[in-house]
TrEMBL record:
Coiled coil: none annotated. InterPro entries: AhpC/TSA (IPR000866), DUF4369 (IPR025380), Thioredoxin-like_sf (IPR036249), Thioredoxin_CS (IPR017937), Thioredoxin_domain (IPR013766), Thioredoxin_ResA/DsbE_sf (IPR050553). GO terms for molecular function: antioxidant activity; oxidoreductase activity. It comes from the Bacteria. Residues 260-398 form the Thioredoxin domain. This is Thioredoxin domain-containing protein. Keywords: Redox-active center.
Amino acid sequence: MVTNNLNASTVQFIKHICIFILVFQLIGCKTNNEGTYQISGTINGLDTGTISIVEWTGNGDEFIIDQTTIKDGTFSFSGKMLHSKPVNILINEVYGFSFFLEPEDIMITIDSFPKIEEEFTVLKPIIKGGIENQSYQSFSRTRDSIKALPRFKKIDKLIERYAVALKNNNEQEIYAIEETLNAIETEQYTLLHNTRKTFILNHPKAIAAPYVLLHEGDGMSTEVFTEEELEAMITNFDSSIAYSSDYKECVHNLEVIKKLAIGKTAPDFTLQNQSNIPVSLKDYRGKVVLLDFWTYWCAPCVDEFPYLKELYGNYKNKGFEIISISDDPDIDSWKKALTENNLPWTQCIIASDKETDVSRSYYIEALPTKYLIGKNGEILDKNPDRETLENILKSKLN
């Protein structure tokens, strides 16, 4: 037979060929499975209903990727996809949770379904399968274990006691609870903050990392992260996840934050004032300007008005101006608030989608937000406290 005449080197060559074919077939199988998600799940306590995989677009619109019905407490999804991405699962429109859609076999188990429908209930499922989901679940378990520590369980009770003390105007009790509450919350916040930062730095190839940076805790807040910290985390992301919308948003936000550093030129804008007259920041060159981002429903914003009135009265004749910018398109409620508070300085409103670029260019994360702008358009400070603000005004306005 021919095989009897094969020498050792020929046999070895054939073995190598066979191994190559086997590896090629395995790779081929892997390639065929890429881009296909297979999700199966069970819900204890809900026999029927509608369940959807939903993605939120950058402008806040809802896009349904897939939808199916729940039968006898079970459901399944199967479909094609290009890349892994964070999505939401919605059940009957009033229950839901976040997870990562991946080209993997994923099993979702909801052990106990709530009996009472609230406005919206966040569920805590058990998710098995998927690299991204396992990474994020590991982070979530650590986060939740910190919140469950006995010393942090006191927080809710302290808040209840604090509300009673405020109602009774018990100053001694108010002060004592504030001290205790601040100490406990600071400790918890520090642990959660460090947990988030460690996860992000240790998972540079996971799309869960930019997701956690954007959507967990205080997000990319410049009140909790320095520009250097944000840059270290974002530049640590691997280029393999550059397709992720969260990755792109992190990179974009960092670029905006860098442009808002002290000493940089403040972004110019043009908005309509309360008399429908265009107002541009560049028109105030030669004056020190306080930009005050607020809205009528923001109690801390409105609480600042008496102080701002006093400040404006003291410095308006020395080259100081305030431009308040309402970050809510409800014009009628805005004008009503202006009348009620009798504000004597320039008032503008972000009333259209195009004008929301002003909020983005100033990286408005919360309200109120204030920027102090110098005579040459340079940024002097962001959210200065009252003492710092007045010291800068005294210095710049002689």
